[in-house]
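Re: [ENG-882] Designed sequences occasionally contain unexpected residues at chain ends

Forwarding the minimal case from QA. Structure tokens:
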């Protein structure tokens, strides 16, 4: 048999002191490490900055053998391995960017038991030669990082992750840990099922990031708003500005530079040298603002990012949470600011419509977008809404814009009742259910082919809601869904009653809605065709 890398440290705390220079474990770290060191599996949901790396690196240093880390981003492996090597950890990676001799050297070192950690990209593990090689040595632990990539409904699906379910059979007896900073119940379930971890212990950390202040404004003149936001953060602070398109990244960076802000662009279309130069400046220097597409930031460990700004609406709450989570990893006060407008919504609906994917996938993407909009439109605490999305309870935080300056709201009871009674009538009288679009058409008294052919113009609520625009009605629908006053049901997400609907229909449950900011298209935002 080949040599196994010997245990480097007698105890987990030893490894933490010596390698990382920290005094004590944080949160669930110690319990997670115990579980793995004693040979059990684990699923770890921990927010960005929570300290996930220690959870699998320390077991690799304490157990005999080499820790295998599956990580989706080749670009990051290099940085992670460099950082570990600098701390005296014997780490290496196997990926497609290496030359044959480099790869051979890593393989030799692994088989000779000279590696504490080996990083591989997920696609490597569908390669039988790689699996055979790894089987010839000894693994101490298998870590699957960014485990949410296995979720087909999530925002970051990677097909290669689906093949990771059989790692338990390929490497029997090696404890496995799946880690992610995404915490929806659904992603959690998918990780458990698809990575086949039925026996795993689950560690779900609080997703609250109390030092981040959440602020969301309607888009009016987004460049001017962004500039004044950045200036209000003080001199010399580092920040990230997220935009959806490459052209918007470039234009925004140029504009900010003209305003005297040290802004640099980052997106996948830039030459590799420019990207790594820009990333290096951001990490090294003070006061650099990176304007980037969401390609930037995964795995970037810069603790003192003081703000994250979104000038376009993220596609999902998961994405928003992950991106804003890159602010304030050092625990110091930081701000997550966003501006969004009607044009964003129209554009994203069109992307979904024109994208590939079957009806069920599009339905899901629309639901993700609706949840994001519900966060934008909430009359209550943003943090409560955000944590609620991840299934966690919280009190109003006092550190978000809605807590600090309560928004204008209006009494939406009457429109809510009109909508619910339309749903009830269609269900009772005709055994039919519909999505928001058609219900709004009925309420606004539209004369569509569908309405005429189904004789929905004969319903008693037909035309009763003509006082609100289509956009206002959609906002009512989103906010009612977000407040649980009705629910989306079935494969097509048609609207149905929830437990709370009865109270609205009887008038005993108040319906407070945020004054709709999405009925005007802001200046500087493109109007949709
Ligand atoms: P994640 O992968 O969850 O985003 P990291 O593993 O990158 O988080 O850790 C975030 C930061 O916290 C890093 O700078 C890391 O060195 C630091 N850290 C991790 N564990 C501890 C600890 N026990 N004590 C102090 N700092 C820690
Ligand atoms: Zn709040």
């Amino acid at each position: 048999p080949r040599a196994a890398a010997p245990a480097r440290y007698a105890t987990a705390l030893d490894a933490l002191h010596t390698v990382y220079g920290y005094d004590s474990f944080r949160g669930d770290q110690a319990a997670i490490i115990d579980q793995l060191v004693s040979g059990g599996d684990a699923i770890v949901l921990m927010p960005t900055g929570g300290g996930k790396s220690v959870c699998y690196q320390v077991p690799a240093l304490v157990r005999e053998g080499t820790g295998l880390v599956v990580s989706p981003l080749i670009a990051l492996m290099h940085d992670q391995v460099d950082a570990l090597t600098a701390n005296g950890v014997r780490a290496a990676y196997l990926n497609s960017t290496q030359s044959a001799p480099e790869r051979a050297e890593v393989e030799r070192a692994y088989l000779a038991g000279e590696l504490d950690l080996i990083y591989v990209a997920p696609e490597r593990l569908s390669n039988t030669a790689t699996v055979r090689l790894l089987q010839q040595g000894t693994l101490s632990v298998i870590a699957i990082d960014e485990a949410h990539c296995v979720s087909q409904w999530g925002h970051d699906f990677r097909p290669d992750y689906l093949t990771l379910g059989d790692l338990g059979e390929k490497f029997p007896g090696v404890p496995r840990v799946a880690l992610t900073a995404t915490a929806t119940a659904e992603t959690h379930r998918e990780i458990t099922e698809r990575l086949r971890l039925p026996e795993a212990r689950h560690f779900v950390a609080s997703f609250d990031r109390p030092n981040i202040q959440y602020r969301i404004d309607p888009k009016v003149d987004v460049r001017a708003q962004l500039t004044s936001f950045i200036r209000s953060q003080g001199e010399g602070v580092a920040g990230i500005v997220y935009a959806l398109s490459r052209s918007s990244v470039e234009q925004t960076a140029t504009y900010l530079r003209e305003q005297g802000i040290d802004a640099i662009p980052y997106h996948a279309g830039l030459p590799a040298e420019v990207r790594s130069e820009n990333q290096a400046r951001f990490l090294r220097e003070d006061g650099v603002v990176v304007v980037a597409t969401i390609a930037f930031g995964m795995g970037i460990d810069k603790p003192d990012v003081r703000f994250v700004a979104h000038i376009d609406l993220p596609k999902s709450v998961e994405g928003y949470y992950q991106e804003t989570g890159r602010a304030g990893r050092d625990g110091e006060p930081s701000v997550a600011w966003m501006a969004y407008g009607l044009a964003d919504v129209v554009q994203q609906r069109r992307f979904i419509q024109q994208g590939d994917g079957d009806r069920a996938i599009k339905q899901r993407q629309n639901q993700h977008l609706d949840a994001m909009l519900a966060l934008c439109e909430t009359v209550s605490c943003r943090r409560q809404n955000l944590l609620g999305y991840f299934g966690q309870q919280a009190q109003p935080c006092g550190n978000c814009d809605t807590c600090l300056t309560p928004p204008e709201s209006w009494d939406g009871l009457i429109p809510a009742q009109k909508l619910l009674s339309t749903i009830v009538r269609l269900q009772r009288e005709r055994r039919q259910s519909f999505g928001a679009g058609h219900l709004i058409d009925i309420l606004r008294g539209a004369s569509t082919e569908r309405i005429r052919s189904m004789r929905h113009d004969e319903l008693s609520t037909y035309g009763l809601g003509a006082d609100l625009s289509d956009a206002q009605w959609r906002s009512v629908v989103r906010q009612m869904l977000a407040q649980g006053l009705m629910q989306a049901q079935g494969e097509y997400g048609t609207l149905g009653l929830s437990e709370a609907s009865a109270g609205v229909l009887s008038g005993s449950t108040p319906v407070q809605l945020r004054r709709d900011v999405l009925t005007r298209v802001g200046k500087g935002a493109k109007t949709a065709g």
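QA comment: On inspection the terminal residues look reasonable. Confidence is low (pLDDT under 50) at residues 520-529. Proposing we downgrade this to a documentation issue.
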